[in-house]
Amino acid sequence: MPIWLETAIRSICILIGLFVITRILGKKQLSKLSFFEYIVGITVGDIAGTMSVDLGISLQEGITSILIWSLFPVAVARLSLRNKKFRDFVEGNSTVFIKNGKILEENLKREKYTVDELLEQLRKKDVFRVADVEFAVLEPNGDLNVLLKREKQPLTVGDVFPNPPREKEPQTVIMDGMILDEPLATMGLGRGWLKEQLDKQGVAIENVFLAQVDSYGQLTIDLYDDKIQIAEPQEKKLLLAAMKKVQADLELYALQTNSEEAKALYERNAAEMAELVQKVEPLLRN
Amino acid sequence: MTVASQVKQTLASLKGIHAGLQQLALTSQDETAQRTFHEAMLATEEIIADIKDRIGRLEFEEPQYHGK
Questions:
Q1: CB atoms within 10 A of CB A15
Q2: CB distance A215–B10 less than 8 Å?
Q3: Do residues A209 and A274 share a domain?
């Protein structure tokens, strides 16, 4: 067997083997590599590389070594899933750097962190004043996570509107001009409804690149032809406007009528309508 | 436009609102939103009943505008 052929066969087999191994190791490896896992990954790659090129190494030796190097982290991960103490030992503990707005110098020293490095990490989190920080912790993987003081935290929707209307994830119902039936069904809608909505907006399905339905049953579309202008869905806004108009009308009738009884009726209903408008306005506004 | 026909127009808008709320109650995915729309729909039903009542009386008082 020519040398190049042997190298090729080895390389391909090792490639496939490595692919299988990375699949076994899973996604977690990608998101947070501990230092140990990082080293292991490099070593496995190195062994694989040497094995595929260096024909002096027998396959038996190489495969044994690669299996041990790659399966050991899997075993460690399995064990640390079960046992908290073992997990702390393997993955390390987080260290608190700032507590109650005060820097803990002892902990900095223990992690061999200088103040400059701490400031740099804080700046990475867009914090330039240490005084703004309530709590900061160094995670086992080296990230610094920061909790700002309450008055320095960014404003959220919940701060402004105590009970904001909830929003579920939108569903994509048309992709590349093809109707996706499954998401449509999860929204409790059908092809008939979709057709009707598209007709209302005056577009053909073939021309739709992407269409999504939001959690209030509104359809938003993107067309292949970007020159065509499509209006935003207006149903909710129109409904709100109609409600406000009816409320105003009722108030007007209450002022115009001469009959006491009718006046009372109009006023009561106008008040009820105003209450209704207030109740549904947050849901209809966007 | 007579008072009766104005009130009838308002009744028509109310019915439209009723239908819109009903549709939103059915198509919304969130349960609280569904409930809010449903409650609002029921409330409009009461208003519609009141206004219908009033229209009946108006037509009785001004029979010349009946059905217009």
A1: 12
A2: no
A3: no
> What's the gap in Å between the CA of A269 and the closest CA on chain B?
6
Contact B44 A276 (CB under 8 A): yes
A143 and A85 within one domain = no
Choose the closest CB to A216 out of B3, B24, B50: B24
What's the structural domain count of chain B? 1
Distance CA A24, CA B5 (A): 75
Block residue for tokens 């598209």 = A198
Q: Which residues pair with A208 in a beta bridge?
A: A223
Chain A residues with CB inside 8 Å of B12's CB? none
**Which residue of chain A has the CA closest to B58?**
A262
Q: Which domain does B60 fall in, by range?
A: 3-65
Read off the pLDDT of residues A102-158 as tens digits, 9 standing for 90 and up: 999 999 999 898 999 999 999 999 999 999 999 999 988 788 999 999 988 999 888
Q: What residues of chain A lie within 8 A of the CB of B23, using their CB?
A: 217
Kindly report, residue by residue over A153-209, the tens digit of the pLDDT: 999 888 888 777 778 888 899 998 888 999 888 888 889 989 988 888 888 888 889
